[in-house]
Amino acid sequence: MFQGGYMGKVLRVNLTTKTVLVEDLPEKIARDYIGGAGFGVKYLFDEVPGDVDPLGADNKLIFAPGPLSGTAAPCASRIAVTTKSPLTGAVGMSLSGGYFPVELKFAGYDVLIIEGQSETPVYLHIRDDKVSIKNAEKIWGMDTQITQTIIKQDVGDQNTRIACIGQAGENLSKMAAIINERRAFGRKGVGAVMGSKNLKAIAIRGTKEVPIANPEAFSAARKFMLDAMKQSPVLYPEFSKLGTPMVVDVTSAMGMFPSENYRNTGEKDYSETIGVEASLSRNKGNEHCYGCPVGCTQLKLAKGQGYEGGMSDPEYETYYSLGSVVGVESVDSIIYNDMLCDKYGLDTMSVGVTIAFAMELFERGMLSAADTNGIDLRFGNHQAVTQLIEEIAFRRAGIGELLCDGSRIMAEKIGGDAGDFAMHIKGLELPAYDPRGAKAHGLNFATSYTGADHNRGYAFQEVFGIPVPKAYDRFAVAGKGWLTKWNQDIRCATTDCPTMCGFLMDMAVPAIAEQNTADLVSSASGLALTKEDVGKVGERVNNLARVYNISAGFTRADDTFPKRIIDETIKEGGSSGQRISQEDLDLMLNEYYEARNWAQDGVPSQQKLAELDLPEAAALLEARGLL
Amino acid sequence: MITVEITTIMDLKALMGEKKDQTIVLPEGAAVGDALNQLCNTYGPVLNKRLFANSGALNPGIAVFVNGCVIDALAGLESSLKNGDRVLIFPPVGGG
Fold first, then answer.
1. Which end of chain A has the least Cβ crowding within 10 Å, N or C?
2. What fold is seen in the domain A236-429?
3. Residue-wise pLDDT tens digits, A406-420
4. How far is CA B35 from the centre of its chain?
């Protein structure tokens, strides 16, 4: 029985049998995995074999906020969804914020597991203890914004919080996202899994309170966190006023803001046209997630170039994916196309990078006008980006069908040397940092359990120069294996599991993140976790996810970079002369595996799995003859 | 004498004559601290207050890189400069 933080319940909904079960959340799972991504990886490992079809009935969607979600802890309205990713075939874990995450807690649940497949379109309605599977045929085919409006009318409650898919998820695009309000579980094709289950939406309204085990200690821990936020040199007012788009100016000055499918990173200064000043000129205010005093989301209204009326909140990554990586210098088109992706339910990052891949093939003559449905796919053509988003969302014959499952599958369809220009790792398109300019940041892309995912081990030491745990030369190779392990474990333990906004870890409490997490989670839940316990949670989740991926067929050979990153050197700008040779990659990987106490083939050791109390992972590897 | 290229962004650019990039000349053997002091002499006390605490250390969040390497991984403000070096100065930044 939990004293607080946790609601103590797992809600299990089977869409094949239309059954609803409520189970107790085992205390051992709470203690060993805290919540969020930890719960997701644990339930995925236990219940979804590595070889299942991600779009088949045996895959599951596991939604889990953390013990701090719905409490007065600042910035804890986060929720993870975990599944076997159709885009990568690996663990697919994506986090979202807003108001949806806390609503599941208020309804009384720590975990929501969706199983099976409905034969017809449905949506799930949770109102505290009342759980209904409802007919969604009338909203099937609608975009994410209209869907949310209609469901609120349907359930007769405008305060219901909704996560849903758009047309992209219905059409099983492997780049489909799940959208809640204007926020997204953006990456790894989680929207396609929802579409494969014929599940249009999850609508939740809860009226319960999240209990606190030790209010006095929790209040002290909360005050410490709020004070640390006030002392941050970044959060107030800069981050409230500028949000993540400020990073365009940062990485541009460092020469690692990727452009034109990474073929000319550093050669053009995109901060002049789509940097923070340009984006600020379109600002209409900021938005907050539940319980966040910062409010980093920046609402933008497009002004010209035929994009008038476009309103959205593009983050830094989208200035890259719908901007520089496709050679686009129109901030208005970025706002508009970001709005389109949200509307149709698409990951802006994978979509933009896949379009950039197509643009390079077009300019190289490897795709013709006949292949592109007549669209002029030259870099910089922002109207072409707009057209392609629609082609992808509706999986239209020709170019839409070619692009809609992401770069890896597109490369396989085209064949030949096309894959040399596809910028993905394990099938997940690269985020907005050229790995050649920040080696630990890049090594995290290569080794993250979700593919090229900056958020699973953000190297703020390299990108922002923050000297925690110590300062690092971003171009150096030595030491980056150890640093990547540190970044991945602390990020997982202090943000992905509790669940807490990752920006606070970087900007407010990087040096004491584990203690801060231990204090907040312990006082909220009564579990009495030490900072060492918290640190171990991060390591445990990364190891369990690694073994899951091994069971799905991944090996050391998949911990790599696109060919261009290994073969080509950045020619100009603040990272000129940089590349990551195969030798550099091998050195970093060897050090990373050693730091993790994994064998040099990337398989966790018996000793490490025993230390982390993961007998189920050891048993899986033993059964496959890998231990 | 040596010539050093200075680059900065955001509000620091506004405090340095709205110049994102500029070149300064320093004596042989100059260090990063000398370059920053020269910029403060040129642009005045507002820049000085933005960059430095009363202790003389850099304010929290101010990051300085020489040829891409953050100076905390070198010798801090004592990091030596040579002709043609590129110095990048960031105000506190985050996100992404």
1. N
2. 1.10.569
3. 999 999 999 999 999
4. 6
Enumerate the domain spans of chain A. Answer: 9-205, 236-429, 438-623
List pLDDT tens digits, range A65-88. Answer: 999 999 999 999 999 999 999 999
Decide which of 1.10.443.10, 3.40.50.2300, 1.10.599.10, 3.10.450.50 is the CATH code for A438-623: 1.10.599.10
Convert the pLDDT of each residue in A542-555 to its tens digit. Answer: 999 999 999 999 99
CATH number for domain A9-205, candidates 3.90.1150.10, 3.40.630.30, 3.55.50.30, 3.60.9.10: 3.60.9.10
Is residue B96 within 8 A of residue A247, CB to CB? The reply is yes
CB contact, 8 Å: B91 with chain A?
yes
One-character DSSP codes across A424-440: EETTEEP-SS-GGG-HH
Domains and CATH numbers, chain B: 2-90 (3.10.20.30)
Nearest residue in chain B measured CA to CA from A254: B68
Quickly tell me which residue has 């780049």 as its tokens: A175
- Are A239 and B95 an interchain contact pair (Cβ–Cβ within 8 Å)? yes
C-alpha distances in Å from residue A199, one per residue of A104, A119, A172, A179, A262: 17, 10, 12, 13, 37
pTM: 0.98
* Cα-to-chain-centroid distance, residue A454: 8
Contact B94 A432 (CB under 8 A): no
pLDDT for A505 beyond 80: no
Minimal-distance CA residue of chain B relative to A467: B72
Asked if the Cβ–Cβ distance from A574 to B72 is below 8 Å, we say: no
